[in-house]
């Protein structure tokens, strides 16, 4: 039946007092799809029960979701750019660049992201980091920077420029002098076998930074040592690390390691663009350690653009046949599959539940960054960043702080 | 008294919902003329609430000019506890319909002064002009609301200590842990419900059969407090076949005969007394 927006007869309140009730929907809540309404006010998801019994208010508007699924908005912890913007390269226009990506990402259901900087010269970090916007109106929220490098292993540099790779000679002060300031950094990817100072990882974690292991030749022992020191994330599992070996499983072995401190979860980003990780590898990772799995796009500047030559970091790249390579080579240098596509591909490959596929891109990344009270769920009190999806997990609309920022054309 | 015997407990919920809808619509409530409804909780009325929500969604009934008074609430249970009657009513009824929050009244089992809370409830009912239709269920011990055996038949809204039968019946909702079951409740009195213009009692299941027998085939007795409604001018009891198991065949035949003799149309819409 047609159910138009209904307004009650109370006087129209100020925007932040408007109580909105989303009905005729299924919510991702409590690890299930529940038939229940979503109540939003002042940019937060709220508990309607005290509103009814204590405040004695009704909704100012009711929105019929037509049976859609309401999921928390996706969090992307690794994205290098998009829509022609390269966060590491476009230093002069970084503010507009981040804003352009933030506004573009909402189309794929992403409501929060970590702009990622690949291995770059120190100058780049000093210039770029302070200028990354903290918020973009009508755009996905910025959780902080993911500094993927420069403290990586040159043998696993992937698409990163070797001449910018650095070593941590003076502990934390090496990082501070390279990056300029740690303030805007949320995640650091480093190669643990290149970190001799056992304090560094712990010091980064103390500053609220998530330490991720990647672009590394680490053995499982190296990885376990780093995890004991506080590392909690692995950067794009399988890519830019030693392959699983049955006598030394390497970083991949962390998914089944018995040396992880109890109560701690090791999370791992995985790119399910249909290119970077074979479906069987996706399944192995999913089956081995489902609670740690995080979907990332690792998307590059060509996300959202057509075939041709573009830029990443310090090197040119080429998009051909839906894949992105370092120009003139067959080395993959990043994904151009948007997050909602990654979620769908992952679900098809693993045959997981709708709820799990969504949690891999929402709850798990939020838990990894320890922000699950504000992001990544539809729990009462969390930020009203959510998406409406159909049963095929295609994005119908995207909402940030309770306001619609994107609606897919019918 | 009219006893309407239907096939299943589902039929009871649906019939009751149709009746409530008809009564509200016939009353033609408006901003100066509220329909005052007394409401129960429990598994039997759940079916009725589901149907009423459907009717509301289909645009057949509105609760905009309806005031409600629930029968009871546990003492000391947090309002958002899964077993509280506030929780039941919010999740199973109020959040799905268009009733005004200020027209909803449920006793507050966490009030600082429980006696004052009960007295205030009586005042609110009086101010609302009295209850037009009070809906209730029946306990296995024949109680209405939490008017346990021995409750005065002229009682008013008050604090009651729950009987052992009731605690045992409730244990299944509290992990079968007797220590978690609330021992007291606030409840409307038998007299409070008797004051309403019409009383509708829903009785389903074989485990209620003996209580139904005691309520309608034996005398008025404070040990089976539902029996008090033998002395109300407009009592309507809706039950399923299983609930009639302890009744005399003659009683069942008499009431079924009345339904059979009414034409279908009248049955669908309710009954005339």
Structure commentary:
Chain A is 21% helix and 25% strand. In chain A, strands 8, 11, 12, 13, 14, 15, 16, 17 and 18 form a 9-stranded parallel sheet that branches. Chain A has a 6-stranded mixed sheet with strand order 3-2-7-22-23-24. Chain A has 410 residues and is α/β, with parallel strands linked by helices. Chain A has 2 domains: 6-71 and 376-407, Urease, subunit C, domain 1 (Roll); 74-368, TIM Barrel, CATH 3.20.20.140. Chain B has 273 residues and is of the alpha/beta class. Chain B has one domain (2-261): Rossmann fold (3-Layer(aba) Sandwich). Chain B has helices at residues 9-27, 43-57, 85-92, 114-127, 164-171, 190-194, 209-217, 249-261, 264-269, and strands at 2-6, 35-39, 66-70, 72-74, 104-105, 133-137, 158-161, 184-187, 198-203, 235-240. In chain B, the strands form 2 sheets. In chain B, strands 1-10-9-6-2-3-5 form a 7-stranded parallel sheet. In chain B, helix 1 crosses helix 2. The longest helix of chain B is centred in the N-terminal third of the chain and has 19 residues, at 9-27. Chain B is globular, with a radius of gyration of 18 Å. At the A-B interface, helix 1 of A face helix 3 of B.
């Amino acid at each position: 039946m047609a159910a138009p927006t209904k307004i009650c007869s109370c006087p129209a309140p100020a925007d932040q007092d408007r109580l909105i009730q989303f009905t005729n929907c299924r919510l991702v809540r409590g690890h299930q799809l529940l038939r229940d309404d979503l109540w939003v006010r002042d940019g937060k998801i709220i508990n309607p029960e005290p509103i009814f019994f204590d405040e004695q208010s009704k909704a100012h508007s009711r929105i019929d979701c037509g049976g859609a699924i309401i999921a928390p908005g996706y969090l992307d912890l690794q994205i290098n750019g998009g829509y022609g913007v390269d966060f590491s390269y476009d230093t002069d226009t970084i503010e507009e660049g981040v804003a352009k990506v933030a506004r573009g990402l909402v189309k794929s259901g992403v409501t929060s992201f970590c702009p990622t900087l690949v291995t770059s010269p120190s100058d780049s970090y000093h210039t770029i980091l302070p200028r990354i916007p903290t918020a973009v109106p009508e755009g996905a929220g910025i959780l902080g920077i993911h500094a993927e490098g420069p403290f990586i292993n040159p043998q696993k540099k992937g698409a990163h420029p070797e001449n910018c790779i650095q070593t941590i000679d003076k502990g934390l002060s090496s990082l501070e002098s390279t990056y300029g300031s740690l303030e805007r950094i949320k995640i650091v990817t480093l190669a643990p076998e290149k970190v001799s100072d056992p304090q560094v990882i712990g010091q980064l974690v103390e500053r609220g930074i998530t330490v991720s292991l990647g672009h590394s030749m680490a053995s499982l022992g190296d990885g376990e040592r780093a995890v004991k020191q506080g590392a909690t994330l692995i950067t794009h599992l399988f890519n830019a690390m030693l392959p699983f070996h049955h006598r030394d499983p390497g970083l991949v072995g962390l998914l089944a390691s018995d040396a992880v401190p109890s109560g701690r979860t090791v999370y791992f980003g995985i790119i399910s663009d249909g290119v970077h990780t074979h479906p069987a590898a996706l399944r192995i990772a999913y089956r081995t350690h489902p609670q740690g799995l995080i979907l990332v796009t690792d998307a590059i500047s060509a996300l959202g653009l057509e075939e041709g030559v573009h830029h990443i970091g310090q090197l040119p790249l080429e998009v051909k046949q839906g894949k992105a390579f370092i120009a003139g080579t067959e080395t993959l240098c990043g994904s151009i599959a948007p997050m909602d596509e990654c979620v769908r591909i992952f679900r098809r490959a693993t045959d997981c539940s709708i709820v799990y596929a969504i949690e891999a891109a929402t709850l798990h990344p939020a838990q990894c960054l320890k922000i699950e009270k504000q992001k990544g769920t539809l729990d009462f009190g969390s930020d009203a960043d959510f998406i409406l999806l159909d049963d095929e997990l295609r994005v119908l609309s995207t909402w940030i702080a309770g306001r619609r920022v994107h609606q897919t054309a019918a | 008294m009219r006893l309407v015997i239907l096939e299943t407990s589902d039929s009871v919920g649906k019939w009751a919902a149709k009746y409530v809808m008809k009564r509200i619509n016939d009353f033609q409530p408006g901003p100066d003329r509220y329909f005052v409804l007394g409401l129960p909780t429990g598994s039997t009325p759940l079916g009725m609430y589901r149907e009423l929500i459907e009717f509301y969604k289909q645009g057949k009934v509105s609760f905009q000019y309806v005031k409600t008074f629930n029968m009871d609430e546990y003492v000391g249970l947090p309002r958002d506890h899964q077993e509280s009657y506030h929780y039941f009513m919010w999740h199973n009824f109020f959040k799905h319909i268009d009733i005004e929050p200020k027209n909803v009244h449920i006793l507050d089992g966490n009030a600082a002064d429980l006696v004052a809370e009960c007295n205030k409830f009586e005042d609110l009912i009086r101010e609302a002009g009295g209850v037009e239709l009070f809906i209730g269920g029946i306990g296995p011990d024949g109680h209405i609301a939490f008017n346990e055996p021995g409750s005065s038949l002229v009682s008013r809204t008050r604090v009651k200590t729950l009987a052992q039968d009731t605690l045992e019946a409730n244990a299944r909702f509290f992990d079968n842990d007797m220590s978690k079951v609330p021992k007291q409740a606030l409840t409307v009195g038998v007299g409070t419900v008797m004051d309403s213009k019409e009383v509708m009692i829903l009785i389903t299941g074989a485990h209620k059969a003996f209580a139904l027998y005691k309520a309608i085939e034996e005398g008025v007795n404070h040990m089976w407090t539902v029996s008090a409604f033998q002395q109300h001018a407009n009592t309507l009891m809706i039950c399923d076949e299983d609930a009639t198991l302890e009744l005399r065949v003659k009683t069942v035949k008499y009431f079924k005969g009345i339904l059979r003799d009414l034409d279908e149309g009248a049955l669908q819409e309710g009954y005339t007394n």
